[in-house]
Amino acid sequence: MKMSFRWYGEGNDQVSLDDIREIPGVETVVWSLHHKQAGEEWTQPEIDAEVAKITSTSPEDTARGVTKKLNAEVVESVNVHESIKLGKDILGVTRDEAIHNYQTAITRLGRAGVKVICYNFMPVFDWLRTDMFHTLPDGSTALFFEKKVVDELTPESLIASMEGHIDGLTLPGWEPERLASFEEIRAAYKGVTREDMYTNYKYFLDAVVPYAEEAGIRLGVHPDDPAFDIFGWPRVVSRKADLARVLSLNDSPANSLTLCLGSFGSNPDSDPVDAVKTFMDRIVFSHVRNIKHFPNGDFTEAGHRVTEGSIDTVGIMRAYADADYRGYIRPDHGRHIWDENTTKRAELRPGYGLYDRALGTQYLLGCWDTERRVLGRPLETGALNTGR
Predict the structure, then answer these.
(1) Can you list the residues of the chain whose pLDDT is less than 50?
(2) Those residues with Cβ within 8 angstroms of residue 14's Cβ, 6 or more apart along the chain or in another chain
(3) pLDDT per residue as tens digits for the range 173-207
């Protein structure tokens, strides 16, 4: 298992690469070219420059004894253009143009040493919460989903609410350029069915999977977040049966899953541990996080510890350890704690502070190490036991 940590890029993240390097057990930086819009070309120089930034250490750090290296093997995300999901021209882009740029991005990322590309296939909107800084009983704050608010929202009011939280930082899926074209996108989705989405999804996979195979990359689709339809638009990667169907659209191992257990578990009828066990050989990347469900349909992000929420994080990590999982895992959607709710609040990207996600890595690694020791398997060597 390879522990990873998401980073939004220099000048676009309050967390630094030095911060990430100092987290025990973290070896992979999950990155993207966040200034790129869906369907846009990714150039080789841009990719190579970002990879070099992540994988290098400064002469000053080397001189003072820093030997730990980070890798850039996971990209989250190369976003899928709406023309691909719809199967028709939109926003001035044809489906085949957007697919060509996706194919090219795969090839170029493979040259740079990338092993996994995470993406999603959600229509119109990406992830959705109603409160970015909901106060929890311990005084921390977290992302919160209030069902009644969503039931009463219009898409326009939701856009206005989300725009108020961007504040100069990128919120993937809620880019201003994307929101500015909302009316055209909404009109294009009128009458689109689940079967239409699956048909267009297969067309996309059949076009890009051969490029992924040649590049040595596995594509991992992220479940819908939350895992149910929003505003009547069909979401097709929500339930266990949906995951199985997506994998059946193209049976290549390059067509795989980024199994985000918090997103998948946002539907209380789903069983995250069962999903891990069922799809183990097709899970290339996993986000292990915790949410707490409420009887009225609300849910909140919670600490990674199993007793903090409704997701069996211990059972998930036990399943991965039992299977000797060799893919990538990262914590996700941490609470905002300590000075992230005071002096650092203005610069904070909701759900992506440093402290609680760093704590989450240690909890998940502790679960992993414990189960590995019970099984009599060796533990990975820590940074302090390598090098000099």
Answers:
(1) 387-388
(2) 344, 347, 348, 349, 353, 354
(3) 666 767 778 889 999 999 999 999 999 999 999 99
Report the SS3 class of residue 352.
coil
105 phi/psi in degrees, rounded to 5: -60, -40
> Which residue is it, tokens 């990207």?
349
> Order of strands across the sheet with 290-293?
131-135, 141-145, 299-302, 290-293
- The full set of domain ranges for the chain reads 2-385
Taking the CA atoms of residue 294, residue 296, residue 298 and residue 301 in that order, the dihedral angle to the nearest 10 degrees is 0
Q: Which fold has domain 2-385?
A: TIM Barrel (3.20.20)
**pLDDT, tens digit, for every residue of 269-316?**
999 999 999 999 999 999 999 999 999 999 999 999 999 999 999 999
Determine phi and psi for 387, rounding to 5 degrees.
70, -140
* Concatenated DSSP letters of 247-261: HHH--STTEEEEEEH
- Amino acid occupying residue 207: A
C-alpha 107/C-alpha 354 separation (Å) is 32
